[in-house]
Amino acid sequence: MKRIVSRANASFKSLRALKDSARERRTKRQTLLDGPHLVRAYLHFVGQPRLAAVSADSCETPEIAELLSRLDSTRVLCFSAALFAQIAPVENATGVLALIDIPEPRDADRVAEFAILLERIQDPGNVGSIIRSAVGAGADALLLGPGCADPWSPRALRAAMGATFSPVIHTNCDLAAYADRFAGKVVATAGSGGVPPSDIDLTGRVALMFGSEGAGLSRSLAASATVATSIPLAGSMESLNVAAAAAIVMFERVRQLGAKSC
Questions:
Q1: Tens digit of pLDDT for each residue in 165-178?
Q2: In the chain, what are the domains?
Q3: Class of residue 239 by CB neighbours under 10 A (exposed 0-12, middle 13-18, buried 19+)
């Protein structure tokens, strides 16, 4: 494990640039995983990261020491606490991060039983939370259209809690074209005017569409739907956060599938 104490170090400069710049992440097709949970998930689902970095004052903590025992020591850099704080994607650094390659976009043309389509969802925390719920609910295709937040940004990765490593995620997709050729029920979500999700049969081949935080689905994409759904609210709020709404609709499908199998 190599120790780094100078700001002039090339690896330090590269990691700091990736932390600070979305353009740098897109250009290099690399990103940073922050914290033991994400690094552990990457080791489990993918393998060794390109590089790992630890803070000198965290190496002896039991959780990080155990994680270091699983990492290739030739790919681990130990930074002084002051330097590590400058490359950590979060304010309260966890003591370990990993540099990984962003996978190339995957083919979204294969037949899916349960697809999630995201249109212009701009908050990376919402994107990450929806990814986590989608994988947990058994989605086998999750398509992000242009204008969505980068699912590989550090904030989205933290919200997804390792679900981003699933092979079902596709980016920069033509959502309207996918919805038009989807051989199943296409469900548009709306703030009002739709039927409750519990009144829709979601047990077959289904595509669920969720729109931006402020405007919802565009008219053109909503027109691709076979049915629209809205979540009934008992209180005075007009709508739910898109990540919360997505989880409710997705797990209504899980509930229905469970009831059908009984």
A1: 988 899 999 999 99
A2: 2-101 (3.30.1330.30), 114-261 (3.40.1280.10)
A3: middle
